[in-house]
Design brief:
Radius of gyration: 23 Å
Largest sheet: 3 strands, mixed
Strand order of the largest sheet: 1-2-3
CATH topology: GMP Synthetase, Chain A, domain 3
CATH class: Alpha Beta
Length: about 180
């Protein structure tokens, strides 16, 4: 006798068993595409349950991204926000990433972190492009955290402004074509 013979469904589990509690991490990581993609639009599914599943997916994705990048777990916290799409009036989720520890390196690479998060969520649920409406950043650092003073007005534009569109087009055109 095998251990799998004792399972209620026999040796082979069906591909999409939905009797696992929806709030569990296992459920979100293993069956997310099934639950959020196929059943989220059904009238019998509670929107709060769908939000919890999607929130769990975002937490798993953030955990994976921070582990991959070596960012300590306590530095970035996820606070999912329920939202409604202005175009389709569908329920969506916004991922609010709360920066708990002041590390300039995190903000320097915030766009890359956000891109990795979106990619990881898309791996967990390919339909996430429809329900993940945005990623927001919030600074929640202690007030007594030492900060560098703001630079003067000239520092914001010195050497960082892109050339005007005409100069970019001229630089991209070979000299023989001019």
């Amino acid at each position: 006798m095998r251990l799998t013979d004792l399972w209620p469904w026999g040796r082979h589990a069906p591909a999409a068993r939905l009797d696992v509690p929806a709030s569990s991490t296992f459920h979100a990581s293993q069956h997310s595409a099934v639950v959020t993609s196929q059943f989220a639009t059904a009238a019998s599914v509670d929107p709060r349950q769908v939000f919890r599943i999607r929130s769990d997916l975002l937490r798993i994705a953030l955990r994976d991204v921070t582990a991959l990048c070596g960012i300590p777990a306590g530095w970035i916290e996820l606070r999912p926000l329920a939202a409604t799409s202005s175009q389709s009036k569908e329920a969506t989720v916004q991922a609010r990433l709360v920066l708990r520890a002041w590390r300039p390196l995190v903000l320097q690479h915030a766009a890359a972190i956000e891109q990795l998060l979106r990619q990881r969520v898309a791996v967990l649920d390919p339909q996430s492009v429809q329900w993940l409406s945005g990623v927001l950043w919030q600074l929640a650092i202690p007030a007594d955290t030492p900060m560098e003073p703001l630079p003067g007005p000239a520092a914001w534009t010195r050497g960082t402004a892109p050339p005007p569109a005409r100069e970019q087009a001229a630089a991209a055109t070979p000299a023989a074509a001019r």
